[in-house]
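Q: Study each token:
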Amino acid sequence: MPAPRPTTPDGAGGHVLLAPDKFKGSLSAAEVVRYLTVGLRRACPAVEVRGFPVADGGEGTLDAALSAGFTRVPVRATGPTGEPVVTAYARRAGAAVVELADACGQRRLPGGRADPLHAGTHGAGEVVRAALDHGCTEVVLGLGGSASTDGGAGLAGALGVRLLDEHGAELPPGGAALRRLHRIDASGLHPAVRRTRFVLASDVDNPLLGPTGAAAVYGPQKGATEADVAVLEVGLARWAEVVDSHLPAVARQAGAPGAGAAGGVGFAALAFLGATFRPGIELLLDLLGFTALLTGARLVVTGEGSLDGQSLRGKAPVGVASAAAGRGVPTVAVVGRLAVGEDELRAAGIGRAYPLTDLEPDPERCVAEAPRLVEQTAARVAADWLAPSGRPGPDR
């Protein structure tokens, strides 16, 4: 059965809403919006196009908030391996959006060199602390793109929790050092934590420890060898043990769904911040007022670099399509590559996907020429969905 399509004339019947995620390794979400806009307007000059870059808690979360009207507040912070970085949080009224990846994620590794045993999350905690110091009472923390597996120890340390060895000396950064943890002192935890609501934007439901935990599942993605994973697992287990013994009111958070998110930052956020989880894209769309943008829309164009089975488990394109379907607006996806079938797309609320590989099958050239390919693909979308009634539909 062909997907529904508008039958209004060129330029009539409402605006087109662009809501793509990034094409990882190629284009930011804002750049995807830019090239889609060029292609749509070239093919259909009278159409009104509105751009709204989105993210699901990982890289691009900060940019998505800024594009929706939040204010950028610069912060000097510590990168994942100790180097200083200039990052920011996004603020609107008393709400702050913090992107872990922008402060201490993989993109902040000098020269892209992984350091799985020593990388930490102190920088993310510094950004959260800055937001608290400026009076924010709601903090949304996007957890994607982590470079470390330190259980969120760095984040906790930046917020006033001291991690001490048996001699009373503070531990150095990183998950490996947690093996020497003897006790914690949480008496210096930032006082604003108790009156602040913390929400974690993440789709990860892994526990902190074990074969489905932070070290075993995500450590290798951050450069950890099999031996490194074993070291990190011991450190995280010791971290959980000490936290449980010193904070009995929040004991056994290590087994909670999401405790393993971002190398265990989920665990620290649950234990010390009283945080709650929400699916990343759902939270961001709600926070950024996406539903209001759908009013009067005739078509939504979403997308990401690779639309695959993982995407269908709640990543940005599916979240966008679900929100649009709730308002009766059809959604199509422009993607780098497509790895799911038509039936799966339709079940996810996506009327059709347009992979760039249809135009350029060579993966390297597809990445290198992504701007041109996105523009050309936008023209295909315009021909299929925005043309005057009576012309062929998207099933041609």
Notes: The domain at 15-54+290-385 is CATH 3.40.50.10350 (Rossmann fold). Residues 226-246 form the longest helix (21 residues). Confidence is low (pLDDT under 50) at residues 1-12, 389-393.
